[in-house]
Amino acid sequence: MARHRNIRNRRDSDDYDYDDVYGHSVEEDSCLSPSDTSQWIYDRSRNHHAISSFLDSHDDIQEEAEEDTAEQTRPELERRESTDIRNLALTDADEAKLLSCLDELRDILGDTVSENVLIQTVLTNKFDFAKALDEILNRNKNKDKEPEKVISKPPPVVLIESAKPVVSNIDKTPKVIAINVEPKVGVIKGFKVEQDGGSGSRPQTPRDQSPATERTIQIPSKVKEKIDPNKQYSTERGSEKDHLYIVVIGHVDAGKSTLMGRLLCELGEVSQRTLHKYEQESKKIGKQSFMYAWVLDETGEERVRGITMDVGRAQFETKTKKVIILDAPGHADFIPNMITGAGQADVALLVVDATRGEFESGFELGGQTREHALLVRSLGISQLTVAVNKLDTANWSEERFNEILNKLKLFLKQAGFKESDVTFVPCSGLTGENLVKPPTELELCKWYKGPCLLDVIDQCNVPVRPVAKPLRITINDIFKGTGTGFCVAGRIENGVLNKGDKVLVCPIKEIAEVKGISINDLSSNVAFAGDQVSVTLSGVDIQNVAVGFVLSDPVQQVPVSSRFEARLVVFNVKVPITKGYPVLIHHQSLVESANIVKLKALLNKSTGEVLKKKPRCLGNNSVAVVDIEVCRPICIERYKDVKELGRVMLRVAGVTIAAGLITDIYNT
Amino acid sequence: MKLTHRNIEKDGCGSIGLIPEESEDMWHAYNLISEGDAVTASTVRKVQTESSTGSSTSNRVRTTLTIRVETIDFDTQACVLRLKGRNIVENQYVKMGAYHTLDLEQNRKFVLQKVLWDSVALERVDTACDPSATADVAAVVMQEGLAHVCLITPSMTLVRSKIDVTIPRKRKGFVQQHEKGLNKFYDAVMQGILRHIDFSIVKCIILASPGFVKDQFFDYMMQQAVKTDNKLLIDNKGKFLLVKASSGFKHSLKEVLQEQSVMAKISDTKAASEVKLLESFYTMLQLEPAKAFYGKKHVEKANEALALETLMISDKLFRCQDVLKRKEYVALVDSARENGCDVRIFSSMHVSGEQLDQLTGIAAILRFPMPELEDSDAEDDSGTESD
Fold first, then answer.
1. Which whole number is the average pLDDT over A555-579?
2. CATH level 3 topology of A472-552
3. CATH code linked to domain A237-458
C-alpha cells in the first residue's frame, strides 16, 4: 500500500481507479519492452489520424476549463462523487420528495450537473423543483462566461509533471500520450466530461494514475485498460462502425420475424441457397408465408408452431452502423424472453400489423403492442421506430397509416416516449416494400416521402457507452463452447473486458478467468460496454453459474442483496398491490420470485411529493416507494449508479404490473 | 387422524387421545400442540444402569413418557414432529424433570393434555379427524429450466422436488445444445414425478406451464413411457391435466388452482377455496377499499362494529409462542363467529396462506364500508408491522 501512495504523489492527473493497480505484482515494475513501446507510439499516431479529433479539440479545451471553474466555485460538492442521501438526515417524506425532485432535474439536465449540487440546490429551495432548476440553470450561465480566462491557463497536469524530479524514462511515453490524447478521446466519442469521473457503484475518489502506467506497461494485454478505457475504446473502435443493438417488438403475428428475415435477405445476409431451402421446407408443411421468418426462428418447435419463442439474433450493416437485431417473441407467454432481449438493446423497433382488426386487437388492453412498448420504455429504451407492417393489405392507404399513427402517438406519449424520438415507417415485410429501397408501389409513393426502414435504423443514435465504469456483465445464456471451459453470453453494461482478466462471478462471488471473448461469433481480445459478448470462463464450475448472474470487477464489486427499496410505477392492475404481494421480478435476464414486504409511501405522480405514508394498497397508475425482498440474493445496483442494473419489472400471472427503479439496497 | 378419547372438563382443561395416520396429521398435531402442554407418547430411551460393582451398562428401552413441551420442531419436508421437554410423570427408567425429546410417530397413539382447549384447537381436532377430506392432488408447475413438483393436500402444499436447470438458449448454429438441454430438463422432471408422486393416492396430476412447455413435456414423458414400457405412466395417462400457468415458480400454483378445469376436479380441497377467497379479498380491495381490511387493529375495530362478513386468519397466528396473543386471536375468532361471520383459518402451508402470512396474517371482508377505519391509519401503523 505504501508504495502506491508514494507513486501517486508524484503525479496528479485524474481518474485512475485504485483497483486498476490492484493485483499487479512488484516484479512488473521493471523496464518496458520494445514491442510495448511501439504499441504506444502506434496508438498515438492512430489517434492523430482521426480527423474528428482535430475538429473538436477546441471545444474540448473549453469543456475542461468549465470543469475547472466548477471545481473552483464549488469544489467540495463536485468532488465528492456521490452523496448518501441518508446522511442528510431527512425524514422519509422529505427523502422521497428529494428523490423525485432529483429525477425531474435529471430528466431536464441530464448528467451535466453533479448530484451533490443538485441535492444541495433542491434542499436550499425546499424541494421546490422549479426554483431549484432555475438556480442551477442560472449558475451554469454564469459559468459559461468564464471560460476565456481559464483557457489561457495551461493544463495543470503538464505543469506538475515537468516539476516532478523523479520521472523515469519509461514513465514518459505513456504520460505524453495521456495528456495529448485523453481529452480528444472524450470528444470523439461524445463523452461528457463528468463521465470520466465515473460514478461507479462504490464512491470513487479520483486517484493518481502514475502507478498504473508505470506498472502495467509490462503486461501488454492489460496495459490498455489500465491507461484509460475511453482511449482504448476509441483506438479499438474509433475507425469501426458503431454497434447498434435493436430489439424488434410487437404483438404476436405482427410479422416481426418475417420483416427482419426479409430485411436480411434484401441486404444479402442470407444466401440464396438457404433461402431456397427454407422456401421448399416451409412449402412442405404448408406455411410458405413463414419462409422469411425461418431465417430467425431456428428451432423445430418454433418452425412447426410458426411463432418465435426465444430471442433470435442476426446482424447487418448500414451506411454508418453495424446493427445487431434481437428478434423478440410476441406471444404473451414468452414475455420473459422478450424482456431479456429488450434488456440488451439500445433502441427498439415496434412492428404493428396494419390489417384492419389486427392492429386493434394487438393494441387493445391485453394486447402485446401496449405491453411491449411499456416494457421497453421501462427498460430504458427511449428511441423507438414504429414499422407499420402489412400495409399492402390495406392497399397502402394513407388514411389507415394516419389512423394508426395517431392512435399510437397518443399512447406512446403517455408511455413516456418523446415525440421526436419516435419515427413511423410504412412497409410490408412479405413483399419487401420500403425496407431497404425507397418505395416502388405507386399507391405508397403518392403520399409517403420519408426514408425507408433501413435509413431510419441508420439514423438512430448510438447511446454513450460507459466504458470507464467498473465492469458489469449480465449473463443471459450459459452453454458449452468448443475447447476448455464453458461460455457465458451477456451484455457488457459497464466497463471494458480484456482477455485474461479476472472477473468475479456474483452473487456466488467466485473468481473466474476470462479465457476468450467473442463478439458476434468473432473472437476478440477486448470488448467494451454495450457489446454482446460470449465469454469463455475458467475457474468456476458450469453447475454453479446461472442465468441472471453478473460478472463484476473483482475490486469494485456489484452489490449483492436480497432486499432493496424501489420506486414503483404501477401499471393497470386488476387487483391492488398490498404488503406481502408475491411477484416475479425481472431484472435484466434474471427472473426470481419476490415479495413486496413494505409499502413505504404513496407519491404524487407528477410532483413526487408524498401523498400518504404507509398506504394500505397501491391501485392503478400510482407511484410508490416500496421494499422488495427477493427469495435469494441477487446482484443489483442503485439506479443512479448503474441504470441498466437499477431497473426491475414486476410481473404477476403473466401480466406486467409495475416497473421500478432501485433507490436503495439493504445489506442482508 | 383417529380420536381415541376425549376428556374435556367444563372449564376447558382436559386431554384428548389421538392416533396420527398419515403425514398430514403431523401437521395438524403441530398446530394443536403448543408450549406448556403435556404430551404422553411411547418412545425409546437409552437408559444407563449402574450395577452394584460400579460397571455401567446402557440399553434402549421402549417406554411411555409424559413431558411438558418446551420446544416444538416440525420438518415440513419429512413431516416429522419433534417435541422437547421435561418429564413430569414418574417413570421406572426416567427421572422426574429429566429432559426428553419425543418423536411423534405415525400410527402410534399420543395423549395431549391442555390447560385450555379453545374453540380453534377443538375445531382443528374435528377437521383432522374428518376422513372425507382426503383428496390429494399433485401439481407440477414448470417453465423452461425450472419446475416444482408439488403435492397438494387439504391443509398443505408440499414442494417435493424443485428442478432448476440452465438450458442454453437458441443461437445461430447451436440449436442442438438448446434441444439437448431441454430434454435433460424434461427427464429430470419426469424422474421427479415418478419418485415423488404416488399414483394410487393422487386424484389427478396437474401439469402447468406458460407456453408449450407442458405439452412438450407431456409428449416427451409419454414417449419415454412407451419406450421404457413404463406401465405406471401409461395406465395413469388419464390423470394428467394440462393447465396454463404464468411461470414455474411456486406461487403460480395460485393461478392453477383458480383454473376452471382444476376447480371442477378438486373443488373440495381447502387449497382451492382459500385461493378463491383471498382473490375475492383483493378484488374487494380494488373495487371498494373501504370494505376490505387487513392487519389486526383494523380487523378488530371492524369486528367491534359487527362489520365482519368473512374473516381470513392464518393458522400461524395460533401457533405463536405468546399465550396471551393466541388468546386474543381466539377471542377474535369466537366473537366473529358469534356475530355470524364466516371464519376461515388458512393453512400457512398453502401458497395462499403464505401470502396471507405476509399480509399480517389476518384479513377481512366487511359487510358494509367503514371508511373511518382507513382514516385512522396513522396510529395503526405500528400494529400492522409484523416483520
1. 87
2. Elongation Factor Tu (Ef-tu); domain 3 (2.40.30)
3. 3.40.50.300
Q: What is the pLDDT of residue A84?
A: 53
Query: Could you give the CA distance from residue B314 to residue B363 in angstroms, rounded to a whole number?
Result: 9
C-alpha span between B244 and A85 (Å, rounded):
45
Task: Please indicate whether, in this complex, the C-beta atoms of B168 and A480 are within 8 angstroms of each other.
Answer: yes
What per-residue confidence (pLDDT) applies to B148?
92
Yes or no, beta carbons of B294 and A311 under 8 Å apart? no
State the cell numbers at B377: 391509519
B271-380: CATH superfamily: Ribosomal protein L30/S12 (3.30.1330.30)
**Cα A81-A86-A92 angle, rounded to 5 deg:** 140
What pLDDT shows up at residue A268? 84
Of all residues in chain A, the percent with pLDDT exceeding 70 is 70
Residue A275, Cβ density class (10 Å: 0-12 exposed, 13-18 middle, ≥19 buried): middle
- How far apart, in whole angstroms, are the C-alpha atoms of residue A269 and residue A133? 50
- Rounded Cα distance between B323 and B37, Å, is 11
Cα A182 from Cα A196, distance rounded (Å) = 10
pLDDT at B246: 86
Percent of chain B scoring above 70 in pLDDT: 93
Query: Hey, which residues 284-313 in chain B have their CB within 8 Å of chain A?
Result: 285-286, 289, 293-294
Residue in chain A lying closest to B249 (CA): A593
Write the CATH number of the domain with boundaries B137-268: 3.30.420.60
Q: Judge: B282–A582 Cβ closer than 8 Å, yes or no.
A: no
Q: How confident is the model at residue B223 (pLDDT cuts 50, 70, 90)?
A: very high
- In Å, how far from its chain's centre is CA B380? 30
B357 inside 8 A of chain A by CB: yes
The residues near B381 (Cβ < 8 Å, ≥ 6 apart) are: A613, A614
Query: By the 8 A CB rule, do A645 and A588 touch?
Result: yes
User: Strand pairing of A590-603 and A610-613?
Assistant: antiparallel
- CATH 2.60.40.1220 at A560-665, yes or no: no
Report the C-alpha gap between B4 and A13 in whole angstroms.
Answer: 86
Overall fold of domain B2-50+57-129: SH3 type barrels. (2.30.30)
Residue in chain A nearest B358 by alpha carbon? A580
Output the pLDDT for position A14: 46
pLDDT surpasses 70 at A545: yes
- B354-375 pLDDT, tens digit each: 888 888 889 999 888 888 877 6
Asked whether the predicted pLDDT for residue A451 surpasses 60, the reply is yes
Q: What is the mean pLDDT of residues A310-328?
A: 85
What ipTM was assigned to the predicted interfaces of this complex? 0.78
Helix (H, G, I), strand (E, B) or coil at A80: coil
Element (H, E) at A479: strand A472-479
- A404 backbone dihedrals φ, ψ, rounded to 5°: -65, -45
Q: Which residues have a Cβ under 8 Å from the Cβ of A340 and sit 6 or more positions away? A: A311, A476, A588, A589
For chain B, how far is it from start to end, CA to CA, in angstroms? 34
Q: Which residue has the higher pLDDT, B196 or A107?
A: B196
Per the structure block, which three cell numbers stand in for A272?
A: 440464396
> Mean pLDDT in chain A?
74
